[in-house]
Amino acid sequence: MSRVAVWFCLLLAFIIISSPIAEAQDDSDGDGYNDDDDAYPNNSEAWSDSDGDGFSDQPGLNISDDCPNTHGMSYRYMNGCFDTDGDGIPDTLDDDIDGDGITNDLELASSTALKKYDIFNREDVPPDYDWDTIPDVLDEDDDNDGWSDEIELERRSDTLDEDITPFTMYGGNTGWFYVSGEGFVTEYHSHGTEISLSWLLSALTSELIIPIALVPIYGVIWVHRSRNFRRLDEGLETMSTIEELRVIEDEVEQLMRGRRLHTHHGVILRNTIERREDELDQGWFKNYGRGDSEE
């Protein structure tokens, strides 16, 4: 072989060894995929990642992609799926997709026909005054002071001030709850017996005070009507003439018109008047009827 041929062979060998083609043939993990084409050159069980999210297309591995056609970053459950808030939980399993602290269900429940809250946008969140993760529209106690908004509104307390309750709204403490086994406490207890200034004032200004106040008035009216009935009923038994019965009958009529006699008492008295009339008529015919006929 000539010297020229030797140098040619050496040059050709150098070119082959140092060329990119030669380097591309490296397969570090021996999985049949060249390192340049292998997404996991050091893992013989994985070699591709179609969506480029760091999880392999090959199944059955701890790095396998549960959503191989979706670029996602979930890792706590279902690798490589959509994870809007980046908490490692895929959106399909996350009860707070946007990570704003309020669950998807509560955001949707807070929505109205005019305002729909976006469960994928952490900036679009329903108002939550006390930051208890329950939107105000669904929260029974907006200021988290232990008193429901319904009771505070009824007592005219501030529903958005934790320091103002029905017990403190008049300055200092003006009420207690008696709780069996605990005694008197100032915290709200739904099963306790309340003794407070706000409760008393609320009762006095509520609609219930009207029927309550009318109870003694109705009692007086009932007693007066009953007395009228007894007086007239007893008087009828002593009436001896039709003229006297007519006087009683007129009085019964006037008392009923003036609502000073119960309706059922008036019916009883009228029946009694008719009975007494029959008795007086029979007595008159018995005493005078035969004498007149003989004449």
Explain what you see:
The chain has helices at 3-18, 20-23, 104-110, 149-155, 197-205, 209-236, 242-257, 263-294, and strands at 175-179, 183-185, 193-196. The protein is mostly helical and 295 residues long. Among the domains are: 3-37; 149-205, no CATH class; 209-286. The chain has a three-stranded antiparallel sheet. Strand 1 (175-179) and strand 2 (183-185) form a beta hairpin. Helix 6 (209-236) packs parallel to helix 8 and helix 7 (242-257) runs antiparallel to helix 8.
Quickly describe the structure.
The chain has 295 residues and is mainly α. The protein is built from 8 helices and 3 strands, in the order ααααβββαααα.
Q: Which short descriptors sum up this protein?
A:
single chain; three-stranded antiparallel sheet; 295 residues; 40% helix; mainly alpha; rod-shaped
Strand order of the largest sheet: 2-1-3
Poorly predicted residue ranges: none
Shape: rod-shaped
How far the N terminus sits from the C terminus, by CA atoms, comes to: 189 Å
Compute the average pLDDT.
85
Strand content: under 5%
Helix content: 40-55%
* Structural class based on helices, strands and sheet pairing: mainly alpha
Q: Could you tell me the number of beta strands?
A: 3
| Tally of individual helices | 8
Series of H and E elements: HHHHEEEHHHH
Give the C-alpha Rg. 49 Å
The major sheet is characterized as: 3 strands, antiparallel
